[in-house]
């Protein structure tokens, strides 16, 4: 500073101008030093550390610390340290500069410790014991304590008071604050839980029957979560209700790229039978069944021949059934369907038979999660299944309707000659 002032005096400037100009030059000089030091810390020191860690794969936990950017956050301390040591250059503003720099250092320290806790949680999750004894809840408690202590230390640094004095004052006001700001405190805690656990985001489709909510989240505030239902009504859910009660978030379905189809077709059990030779010949003409029928007949004939089974009676040995062939046809039809997700579960299974016949359940995923497209795909599939069932000699079960009763009555009258 003295060197700058003496240099400016040589130009014949006034004392007041020298004071202002030398301070401005010194501020610019310190700023350049901070920028240069920060570049050295990030471009040289940090890259060297990253290179050493990448070359040494012996300890995987170091890579986790690097991924959580602990060292990147730590590098922000360098400019603050330079500013603290430079504060003595400006005697009038020294206290203010030091307080601002220390406050910044406290914030950086909190972010570094927070990143370390995240890294520790990620490292712990790599062990099998984490599935039995999770520690995320404990880490969140530590984070809350860390933020509270950090906030108290920052306030005490800015006002120049002992942190214990602030703590004693907070203790006296805690009961009043809990009573007056109960909803806000509950909402704040719920908001921290929702964000830290990534439970809900704006744009998520959630379903919460208790509050008649079924739609997209359009806003998340301190106290409420706003949901626009599919009928365009708005439901306001308290934030803490999403923590205390259960709800369904459909984000996983949307992210996966597949939406589940789970619906059954009830087959009239009286229409189930063994396949005749004529039926088998017709089935072999169906594109999706040609290879299946040929392979299955070879297996069945080989089994019956090996065990010397009398095939004159279809009860003996192994035989094809029309419902079994129908089930395989549906499986091959879905497998070749352009709008069915090929990398997700695809099943055509029988459920327990009941009063409504034999349920044949289709369990598959469409490759488009859009509601309109999904419903169209599902409808097309079952349109085809209902239409093709008679080809296999099967009847889809339904309870008798007025048309059925009238048809029976007409048949009876006709047979009696009325």
Automatic annotation (TrEMBL):
InterPro entries: LSM_dom_sf, MS_channel_C, MscS_beta-dom_sf, MscS_channel_2nd, YbdG
TM segment ranges: 20-41, 77-96, 102-120, 141-159, 165-181
Protein name, UniProt field: Membrane protein
Signal peptide location: none
Subcellular location: Endomembrane system
Xref: Gene3D superfamilies: 2.30.30.60
Domain of life: Bacteria
PANTHER family reported in the protein's UniProt record: MINICONDUCTANCE MECHANOSENSITIVE CHANNEL YBDG
Mechanosensitive ion channel MscS domain location: 183-251
Sequence ranges assigned to domain Mechanosensitive ion channel MscS C-terminal in this UniProt record: 327-388
Recorded family membership: Belongs to the MscS (TC 1.A.23) family.
One Pfam family hit: MS_channel_3rd
């Amino acid at each position: 500073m003295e060197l700058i002032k003496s240099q400016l005096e040589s130009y014949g400037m006034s004392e007041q101008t020298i004071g202002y100009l030398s301070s401005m030059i010194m501020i610019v000089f310190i700023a350049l030093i901070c920028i240069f030091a920060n570049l050295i810390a990030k471009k040289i020191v940090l890259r060297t550390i990253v290179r050493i860690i990448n070359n040494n794969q012996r300890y995987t936990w170091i890579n986790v610390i690097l991924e959580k950017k602990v060292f990147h956050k730590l590098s922000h301390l360098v400019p603050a340290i330079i500013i603290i040591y430079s504060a003595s250059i400006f005697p009038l503003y020294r206290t203010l500069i030091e307080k601002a720099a220390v406050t910044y250092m406290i914030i950086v320290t909190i972010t570094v410790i927070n990143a370390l806790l995240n890294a520790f949680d990620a490292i712990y999750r790599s062990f099998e014991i984490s599935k039995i004894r999770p520690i995320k809840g404990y880490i969140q408690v530590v984070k809350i304590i860390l933020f509270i202590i950090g906030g108290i230390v920052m306030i005490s640094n800015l006002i120049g008071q002992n942190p214990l004095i602030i703590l004693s004052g907070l203790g006296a006001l805690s009961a009043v604050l809990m009573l007056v700001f109960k909803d806000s405190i509950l909402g704040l805690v719920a908001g921290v839980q929702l964000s830290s656990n990534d439970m809900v985001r704006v744009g998520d489709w959630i379903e919460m029957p208790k509050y008649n909510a079924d739609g997209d989240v359009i806003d998340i505030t301190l106290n409420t979560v706003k949901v626009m239902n599919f009928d365009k009504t708005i439901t306001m859910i308290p934030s803490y209700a999403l923590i205390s009660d259960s709800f369904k978030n459909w984000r996983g379905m949307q992210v996966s790229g597949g939406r589940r189809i789970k619906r059954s077709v009830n087959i009239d059990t009286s229409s189930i039978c063994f396949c005749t030779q004529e039926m088998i010949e017709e089935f072999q003409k169906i594109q999706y069944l040609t290879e299946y029928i040929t392979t299955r007949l070879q297996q069945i004939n080989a089994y019956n021949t090996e065990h010397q089974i009398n095939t004159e009676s279809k009860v003996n040995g192994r035989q094809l059934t029309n419902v079994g062939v129908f089930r395989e046809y549906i499986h091959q039809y879905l497998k070749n369907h352009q709008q069915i997700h090929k990398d997700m579960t695809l099943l055509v299974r029988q459920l327990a038979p009941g009063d409504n016949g034999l349920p044949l359940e289709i369990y598959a995923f469409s490759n488009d999660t859009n509601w309109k497209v999904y419903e169209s795909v599902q409808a097309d599939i079952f349109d085809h299944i209902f239409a093709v069932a008679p080809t296999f000699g099967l009847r889809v079960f339904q309870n008798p309707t007025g048309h059925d009763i009238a048809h029976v009555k007409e048949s009876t009258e006709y047979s009696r000659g009325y």
